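step 3/5: co-fold with zinc ion
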Amino acid sequence: MPRCRFCDAPLNQLLVDLGMSPLCESYVAAEKLNCMEPFYPLHVYVCEQCFLVQLEEYVAPEEIFGEYAYFSSYSTSWRQHVKAYTEKMRRELDLSERSLVVEVGSNDGYLLEYFVQAGVPVLGIEPAANVAEAAKARGVPTLVKFFGRQTAKELVAEGRQPDLLVGANVLAQIPDLNDCIAGMKILLKPEGVITIEFPHLLRLIAENQFDTIYHEHFYYFSFLAAERIFAFHGLTLFDVEELPTHGGSLRIYARHVGDRSKPLTERAKELKGREESIGTATLAYYRSFTEQVHETKRRLLEFLIDAKRNRKTIAGYGAPGKGNTLLNYCGIRTDFLDYTVDMNPYKQGKFLPGTHIPIYHPDKIAATKPDYVLILPWNLRDEIMQQLAYIRDWGGKFVVPIPTVAVY
Ligand SMILES: [Zn+2]
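step 4/5: write C-alpha cells
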C-alpha cells in the first residue's frame, strides 16, 4: 500500500483515478513515433491523517527532470505576474545590493532576472541542466542541483543565506517534500521570508481542474495541509495571497516559528476559517470529485463527437502538461483533433505524448482555418482568445474544456 509522503500514514482514500498516462512533458520526436512509450498510473490519493492530496510515486525523478521541456518565460501573462511579484518583494522587504534572493526550481531564470536587473544578488537552484543553461545565459547564477537539506547546509557553510527564499510552482514537483522544506528551514536567514506559490487545491476541486494533475506534480495543497507541513518543520505561514494564476493559486509567506516580527495577517486567518468551514480537513470534502471528473469527460466527448458528425474541423491551441492529461484521459487523438500549435519552438515539430497529436507553429491556424480551436491552457484563455481573434474572420469558434465545456 502506498504511504503518505509527508506523514507516512497508509493511503486508502482515492481522490480520482485518471487511468494510465505517459509523462506529460515527454514530447515525442517524429523518429520515435513507432517506439514503445511508457505509461504510468495517474492515481490521486488524499491522506486520511494530514489531508495532503498526492500521487503515488511511480517514476524516478531523474527521468522526469533530466530534459525538462517547460521554459517558463514563454507566456506573456506569466512574465507580467512575475515582474509584479519581484517589484512588490523588493519594496516590502527593502531588498538591496546587500540582500540575497534564492529561488528553488529557478527554471530558465525568468524570475530572478528581474532582481538581477534591480541590482539584487541572486542564486537559482535548478535540477534540469538544459533549463539551467538558459538561465546562466541570461546572467542568472544557477546551481544545477536538487534542493534539500544537503544543498541548504552547503550554502549556509558558504555564508549564503537568503533574505528571500522563493519557490514559484516548484513545491509540487519536489520528490522528497520533507527534505525540501527542512532545507528551506536550514537555509533561511533568521528574519528572512519564504514565499511559495502553488495551485490551490480548493480551486482545483471547486473548478474541476483535474487536468492539472500529472505525474510531475506529486502534491496538491490546501492552505490547512500546507500549514501543518510547514509547522512540522518549524516554519509558520503568517500570510497568504490568493492569485488568479494557474487557475487559482496561493502565495504563502513563511517565517521561522521564533520570528515575532511578522504576526499572522487577517487574510491568513480568513482563509483558514474558510477552509475549516468548507471541510478541506475532512474526508467528506473529497468524495464527489470522481463523479465530477467523469461527467466532464462525457461532456467533452459529446461535443467533439457532435462536431465531427457535422464535418467540422478542430485544432488545439497549446501543448501544456494539462492538455496531455485531458487528452489522454478522454482518449482524444487525431480522430478529433487534427493538430495543436504552441509558441514554444522546443515543442514544435514534435508530437503530444500518448495521443501523438502533431504540434505546429501557431501560424498553422491561419493557414488551415479550423471551425473550432480547443484551448488546452484554459488558464490563459483570455490572452489566447485575444491573440487569435482573427479566427472570427472565417467563423471560427473557441472551445474551452474546463471547468465545463464552453464554446465562445
Ligand atoms: Zn499524511
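step 5/5: annotate
Residues 174 and 243 are 22 Å apart (CA to CA).
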